Amino acid sequence: MAIGRPVSLTSNVASKTISVTATASQTLFTVTGGYRINEIAVFRNGVRLADGQDYTARDGSSVTLIEAAGLGDILEFQVFDTFQVAETIQPNEADQTINGNLTITGTLTGGSVGINSAGEVVGAAKTLNFIGTGNTFAVNGDTIDISIAGGGGGGGGLGTAINYAVESETQSPFSYIDANATVTENMMLGTMTAGLSDSYIVSVIPNITVNSGVAVTVGAGKTMIIDVLQIGDL
Q1: CA dist 16 → 10, 127, 147, 205 (Å)
Q2: Domain residue spans of the chain
Q3: What is the pLDDT of residues 89-102, one digit of tens each?
């Protein structure tokens, strides 16, 4: 059995101390930023005062001394408040670092998601917009499954699908293949972009122009085939 009164541990608290110099016969002091009632300690010249006997603090903003202070007395107000994790995020700071996991129960507003392609940063966006027909989205709890079908936006199947009308999303039985195409940026056709094993890299466009200063590198185990359908002979 414990001897004396057991120690009672409380939650983490944050505190601040405000110090003021009294004028002659001053009794009323305003606490900058206010305080929570019964959550303030008052000291005069380093001596702690007793609530209700030496001072009163009942309105959350001011403290009244029972016995007036003398000229030059130092009054210190120690204000206690519950520690909030949210207070570690300063709304007016431009850059902040959070170590560990961040859990958000509401909606994240104003943030951006970084987007990479083949390990390279493409940019950041607040909204991803999937264009073309055949895309389906299924919500499974906190996960959205996205199925992307070809057509409309190019690259889905042989050639680019043609819609019945410009504003229509309905594909016709036809597609088109450009006779010419230009490579404008460096390309690495390796295991990150063209399969992990030996593979064929095929272009149905018969005339491929690589701009000056641009490099197209065919990785080990890859075979480049241009105009596999011999469209250029048509």
Answers
A1: 18, 42, 55, 72
A2: 14-82, 112-176, 177-233
A3: 666 666 777 777 87
